[in-house]
Amino acid sequence: MAAEAFAALEPAEVMAWVEAQGLPAYRGTQLLRWFYRSPATSFEAMTNLPDELRRRLGAEFTFATLAPAVVRPADGGDTRKYLFRLADGELLESVCMHYPRTATSSERTTLCLSTQVGCAVGCPFCATGLAGLQRNMTTAEVVDQVLAVQRAEAAVGRRVSHLVYMGMGEPFNNLEATLGSVRRFCDPLAVGLGVRRVTVSTSGVVPGIEALAERGGGVNLAVSLHAPIDEVRDALVPINRKWPIARVLAAAEGYARRTGRRVSYEYVMLRDRNDSLDLAERLGALLAGRLAHVNLIPYNAIPGDPFQATPEDHIQAFRRCVRRHGVECTVRDTRGREIEAACGQLRADAMQATAV
Ligand code: SAH
Ligand code: SF4
Asked: Exposed, middle or buried, 287 (CB in 10 Å: 0-12/13-18/19+)?
């Protein structure tokens, strides 16, 4: 039988395992710190742990469930895209974006992470959606991708400060791994990020939003809305036929009320598809008075798909229109364009390269 992934264990289980080895509790705390917060890349490298403990760890557990395959820098090194190979050969990607300190904001490094290899939702403008679902990732794989990036970023003097579930996959179609990894990222005995530094993005899986409200500890929620009316959204986000806008908004409102957190609505700007000023009016009217924020995303073109990006001046006009309803609305910066940071694209490239 394959050794169990260390990242699959809850911190309490690690503490119990250490105790069962006849060791004092502080060894468990040391081990957790090494694993979750240091650049060490093996149990062997945990130099202040007894040899025997390191040996037993190596015999019983897999240190990492994935191996870095490619790192591609862009934006002068401020964006780094990681491609990983999983044990069964599947590829997954994560994008890390560094924002240097400015006069008005402190330094931050945001990691965009994946929860599935591929995605079954099938949004037609998304490279991940076009490729379909290969499989769910395990909790350990989701956690290990963050730890691997954290260690590699530490090597260039950066600390991952924020996590967004906006890479490959629909997090709520892999609910247990999503909730399990959120728990690990926020646990002070594990990664230990504050809940406000973690954001889960969903295409609108209503039971998932409800489960996150119950069990997510109050992390940020982003909803990929992309249209304010069902007839437009049905074509852009196919699960809208199962959970239409009214139901998604009701669940998101419930989330906002329960956690006191403002929900972020993502809206990818597709020329002549969802970007008319009439739709901006409807979007503003739909969200007015709610605990909401709209994030307009410039479309990142995918070779061969039928969409075009909305010109920048029109994005600004759309934004002003939404704001006139008293709804806060910003435009996302287009980090990593040159390395194709839209979800799924690097993987699509690598698959092609390996196919050839
Ligand atoms: N599946 C989840 C999270 C991953 S996608 C979701 O859909 O919310 C993260 C965000 O990237 C979503 O808002 C998605 O709609 C957007 N996105 C996908 N493809 C894109 C593209 N080609 N250009 C710009 N944004 C895109
Ligand atoms: Fe899946 Fe999100 Fe891409 Fe839609 S946008 S296909 S839900 S990853």
From this structure: buried
Question: Among 126, 175, 182, 273, which is best to mutate for testing ligand 1, by the most ligand atoms less than 8 A from CB?
Answer: 126
Work out whether the CA dihedral 311, 314, 320, 321 comes out positive or negative. Answer: negative
- Residue 128 Cβ contacting ligand 2 at under 6 Å: yes
Q: Which residues of the chain have pLDDT under 70?
A: 1-2, 334-356
Q: How many residues does the chain have?
A: 356
* Residue 125 three-state SS: coil
* SS3 state at 21: coil
CA distance 254 to 239: 20
Give DSSP secondary structure letters for 70-121.
EEEEEGGGTEEEEEEEETTS-EEEEEEEEE---SSS--EEEEE--SEEE-SS
For 232, the token pair is: 């437009």
Whole-number Å distance, alpha carbon 216 to ligand 1 midpoint, is: 21
170 is catalytic: no
Provide the Cα torsion 30, 11, 185, 82; round to 10°: 70
User: Nearest C-alpha to atom 4 of ligand 2 is from which residue?
Assistant: 123
Centroid of ligand 2 to alpha carbon of 244 (angstroms): 16
Q: Give 174's contacts (C-beta < 8 A, 6+ positions apart).
A: 115, 116, 136, 137
State the pLDDT at residue 131.
83
**Cα-Cα end-to-end distance for the chain:** 34
- Told to judge if 13 belongs to the known catalytic residues of this protein, a careful annotator would answer no
The 8-class DSSP code of residue 22 comes to T
Strand stretches in 232-282, DSSP E: 263-269
Q: Whose CA is nearest to atom 6 of ligand 2?
A: 129
> What DSSP element (H or E) covers 67?
strand 66-74
Q: Which atom of ligand 1 is nearest to the CA of 167?
A: 4
Which atom of ligand 2 is the closest one to the Cα of 203?
7
Q: Give residues with Cβ within 8 angstroms of 250, minimum separation 6.
A: none
| Ligand closest to the CA atom of residue 199 | 1
Q: What per-residue confidence (pLDDT) applies to 342?
A: 47
Task: Report the distance separating Cα 160 and Cα 194, nearest Å.
Answer: 12
| pTM greater than the 0.90 cutoff | yes
